[in-house]
């Protein structure tokens, strides 16, 4: 380890950072669950019967809450929160920055006579007006128009962080456009609820509500705080821009599911305690593949609450990591040469009667129900694959997609060979009315055997971006730093659209005289034929698949600019407007924000790389070269020319190599800065992003390669840029 690294450890305020911060866990974590949440149980205790009923109707039926009820809820929330030492409240929202936001206001209110009281009214609960001028808006509003509104979302419970009552909220502009992730997600959830409930009337008229569920899997890296602070590239970009790979990385797979290091276990214990208090049902923890990479996963929840919990979790993780002298990395690819991090989104649909619509039943009718939602999901992805791809596009995720731990950029669906054979059988269904023999064959020998098939069909295809894994679909391509709401908004929107179309087609066939089951089979048969191009069971990493996908007409959108360009297709704009999720202006604004963010991220990386190359790499290399030159001069003074040439051969070679690589870096930095300035001057966001992608990013490689060459030559005592061998604290 370099002297500079030891100095970093010595000078940081905490000298005992390597000591174990042991954490005591209660005998039952369940006793802590929702301790700091205004949960249903807490509401029963604090609310009037009228107010409680109104809140539950809002959650379950989407009914509006009257103002006098909001006043009652506000008083109850304040009383509960103050009983736990709370002094402030905030509307907690998720703007398009990719992080959460909050503005704290005190309950404290002065009154006459030099006195004061704590006050919290229904008006304060329902709406706040934060200064919204600096949040991304994509041109929807002028910078000088600062007004924006946050509005309470009663479907996601309020919670306490420290001494602040946090109220989950949506965020909209003064003119009504959405400026956050939550508002469009709620619209999409409502759309899929209506569409799926309508289809469910074919199978069970008792179903009055369908709720999309989400189980996310959060991957992350932990790096010791002191070592993190010694890397300017990690601090400024979230990833290491330079440094060669160590001899031992993840080749032996010995970290994967291995014994969790003590310091990390203490971090995880405290994290789980905080999760329980906030109602986040974290149940799974383990080592991931890369050194010092880990994963946390909760139980499935309703999508809106799951999205809020994931955003909240990322905030909590950073706070708890700091207490244990770690820095947490959510970047999808913080270290080259090892696995990156994803956030797998496991999606399904559940009814208010307790059924998972992507699980088969005990009889042919329930299995036909399963097939209906199963095939319609595949059809939705087939029709809107490029929109789903755009929803997971980011500069950081581009580094991960297509590598050996993540799916490729080509969107395909994996269902397993056995289920694929079931769909092939359904494809053979006669067009129109079914014969008695066909009905028997379908119900007993095809549909009836689905439960048995699924018992042995739970394997995963790690190379598939969209895989069926037993009773849910797993969107594996979502990046670890992403807000789940983006992909979930798209997933639920396209599912709702597809189910609406399915209902219309089935009803049209029923009107022609076909029985309901026959009509459903006929429509599903056509869908299977139309969707076969997107179903793929093989290796998504292979070159053969890329060629085959092209033949099938599937797009391979490898970069964010390519993916986001597709997002502006009229088909997708019209979809959003038809389903009531976004108007055209809102889609265009969000597309603009994402393009600008992409360009800004690459621009920052280019600046940091240039600064490190000029201010760290070249001086360190020249310093070492000067020492070599002094060594050569000394050898020449001591030995004769003949001996000297032989003895100084290696030093002379190093001196030459250092000069060559320094020249490559200097020229590379000059070209990089020129390309960066040229890209920065482009006013069109799409073209600017393409310039950063195609002209700026490729110049990184030459600088990196020359820097790596120097790192392997230069004395470690002068070199602070080692890749990650010394960065990751695994014991």
UniProtKB/TrEMBL annotation:
One of its GO terms (biological process) is glutamine biosynthetic process. The keyword Membrane does not apply. Residues 181-617 form the GS catalytic domain. GO terms for molecular function: glutamine synthetase activity. Residues 87-176 form the GS beta-grasp domain. Its EC number is 6.3.1.2. It comes from the Bacteria. Keywords: Ligase. It holds the Pfam family Gln-synt_C. PANTHER family: GLUTAMINE SYNTHETASE, TYPE-3 GLUTAMINE SYNTHETASE. Belongs to the glutamine synthetase family. This is Glutamine synthetase. It comes from Chryseobacterium jejuense. The lineage of its organism: Bacteria, Pseudomonadati, Bacteroidota, Flavobacteriia, Flavobacteriales.
């Amino acid at each position: 380890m370099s002297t500079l690294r030891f100095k970093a450890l010595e000078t940081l305020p905490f000298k005992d950072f390597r000591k174990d911060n042991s954490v005591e866990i209660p005998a039952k974590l369940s006793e802590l669950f929702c301790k700091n949440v205004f949960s249903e149980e807490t509401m029963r205790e604090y609310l009037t019967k009228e107010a409680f009923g109104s809140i539950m109707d809002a959650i379950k039926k989407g009914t509006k809450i009257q103002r006098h009820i909001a006043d009652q809820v506000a008083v109850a929330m304040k009383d509960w929160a103050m009983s736990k030492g709370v002094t402030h409240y905030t509307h907690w929202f998720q703007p398009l920055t990719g992080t959460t936001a909050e503005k704290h206001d005190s309950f404290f209110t002065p009154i006459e006579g030099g006195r004061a009281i704590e006050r919290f009214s229904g008006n304060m609960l329902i709406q706040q007006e934060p200064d919204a001028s600096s949040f991304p808006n994509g041109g929807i509003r002028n910078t000088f128009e600062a007004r924006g509104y946050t509005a309470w979302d009663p479907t996601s419970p309020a919670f306490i962080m420290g001494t602040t009552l946090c109220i989950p909220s949506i965020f909209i502009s003064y003119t009504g456009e959405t400026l956050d992730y939550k508002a469009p997600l709620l619209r999409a959830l409502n759309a899929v609820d209506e569409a799926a409930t309508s289809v469910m009337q074919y199978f069970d008229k008792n179903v009055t509500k369908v709720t999309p569920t989400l189980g996310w899997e959060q991957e992350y890296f932990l790096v010791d705080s002191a070592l993190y602070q010694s890397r300017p590239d990690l601090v400024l970009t979230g990833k290491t821009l330079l440094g060669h790979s160590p001899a031992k990385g993840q080749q032996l797979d010995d970290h994967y599911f291995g014994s969790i290091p003590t310091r990390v276990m203490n971090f995880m214990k405290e994290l789980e305690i905080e999760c329980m208090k906030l109602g986040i049902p974290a149940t799974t923890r383990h080592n991931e593949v890369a050194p010092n990479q880990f994963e946390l996963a909760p139980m499935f929840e309703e999508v809106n609450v799951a999205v809020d919990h994931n955003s909240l979790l990322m905030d909590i993780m950073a706070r708890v990591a700091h207490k244990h002298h770690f820095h947490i990395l959510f970047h999808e690819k913080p270290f080259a040469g090892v696995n990156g991090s994803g956030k797998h989104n496991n999606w399904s649909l559940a009814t208010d009667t307790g059924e998972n619509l992507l699980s088969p039943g005990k009889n042919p009718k329930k299995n036909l129900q399963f097939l209906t939602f199963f095939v319609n999901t595949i059809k939705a992805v087939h029709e809107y694959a490029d929109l789903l791809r755009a929803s997971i596009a980011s500069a950081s995720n581009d580094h991960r997609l297509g590598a050996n731990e993540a799916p490729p950029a080509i969107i395909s669906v994996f269902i397993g060979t056995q289920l694929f054979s079931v769909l092939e059988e359904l494809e053979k269904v006669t067009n129109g009315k079914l014969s008695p023999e066909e009905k028997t064959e379908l119900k007993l020998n095809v549909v009836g055997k689905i439960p048995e098939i699924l018992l042995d069909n739970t394997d995963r295809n790690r190379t598939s971006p969209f895989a069926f894994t037993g009773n849910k679909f797993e969107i594996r391509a979502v990046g670890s730093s992403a807000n789940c709401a983006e992909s979930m908004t798209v997933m639920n929107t396209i599912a709702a659209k597809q189910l609406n179309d399915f209902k219309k087609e089935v009803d049209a066939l029923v009107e022609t005289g076909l029985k309901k089951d026959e009509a459903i089979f006929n429509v599903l048969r056509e869908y299977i034929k139309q969707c076969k191009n997107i179903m793929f069971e093989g290796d998504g990493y292979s070159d053969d698949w890329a060629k085959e996908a092209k033949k099938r007409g599937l797009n391979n959108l490898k970069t964010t600019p390519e993916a986001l360009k597709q997002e502006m297709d009229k088909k997708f704009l019209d979809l959003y407007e038809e389903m009531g999720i976004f108007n055209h202006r809102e889609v265009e604004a969000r597309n603009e924000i994402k393009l600008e963010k992409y360009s800004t991220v690459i621009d920052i990386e280019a600046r940091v790389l240039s600064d490190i190359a000029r201010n760290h790499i070249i001086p360190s290399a020249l310093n070492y070269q000067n020492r070599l030159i002094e060594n050569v001069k000394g050898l020449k003074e001591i030995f004769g020319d003949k001996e000297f040439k032989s003895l100084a051969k290696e030093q002379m070679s190093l001196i030459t190599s250092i000069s060559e690589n320094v020249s490559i870096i200097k020229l590379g930095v000059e070209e990089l800065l020129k390309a960066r300035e040229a890209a920065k001057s482009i006013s069109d966001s799409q073209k600017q992003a393409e310039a950063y992608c195609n002209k700026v990013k490729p110049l990184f490689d030459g600088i990196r390669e020359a820097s790596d060459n120097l790192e392997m030559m230069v004395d470690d005592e002068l070199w602070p840029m080692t890749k990650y061998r010394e960065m990751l604290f695994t014991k």
